[in-house]
Amino acid sequence: MVGVWTIAGTLTPVRALDRLDLVADPVAAALRSLPDGGRLAVAEIDPTLADTAEFCAHYGSPLEASANCVIVAGKRGDVVRYAACVVLATTRADVNGVVRRRLDARKASFAPMDDAVSLSGMEYGGITPLGLPADWPVLLSPQVAAAPELVIGSGIRGSKLLVPGEVLAKLPGAETVDGLAV
Asked: What is the reported pTM?
């Protein structure tokens, strides 16, 4: 895998299926079941540098090739619906417009950290679109879906996944949503 990923900076990417110990359990299960799972790489990082800006600065990976996955909770009455929103790190998700309407919610906001962690089975700051609950839509900005290479979370703070955007666009429940990123 070394040399294949132009966005890796100083990371040492290896085939993700060969290092499932570097991802959260739900992510490992998703990687095993993905037809394109062999195309993904994982790289170990310092968990204190997992936040995007610090990660990019330290490892030399371009900010515009990093994607963030945020969990949004939309509420209408007593019903709460969750969605994962994946946008480039240089943008933000339109939670109160596009995402709220997609979830048919009166109110939408970032899911509380404890809920996002317990429901996803992943660490805060490492949540990724791979391995999320099957009933959650995975909303992708068109820029993410079209990216040839991206750095995303791995479900833990101690590593990052490297993935083509087209693989994310093929995930179960994935939708490319115009206007998601602002």
From this structure: 0.94
DSSP class of 66: B
Helix (H, G, I), strand (E, B) or coil at 84: strand
Q: Which residues does residue 70 pair with via DSSP β-bridges, in sequence order?
A: 85
Residues 6 or more apart from 135 whose CB is under 8 A from it?
173
Assigned token pair, 36 = 């394109």
pLDDT band at 25 (very low <50, low <70, confident <90, very high): very high
- Residue 95: closest CA among 81, 110, 80: 110
Under a CB-based contact definition with an 8 Å cutoff, are residues 28 and 164 in contact?
A: no
pLDDT digits (tens, 9 = 90+) for 29-68: 999 999 988 899 999 999 999 999 999 999 999 999 999 9
| Residue 179 zone, left/alpha/beta (φ > 0; ψ -120 to 50; rest) | left
69 and 124 Cβ atoms separated by less than 8 Å = no
Beta carbons of 158 and 123 less than 8 angstroms apart: no
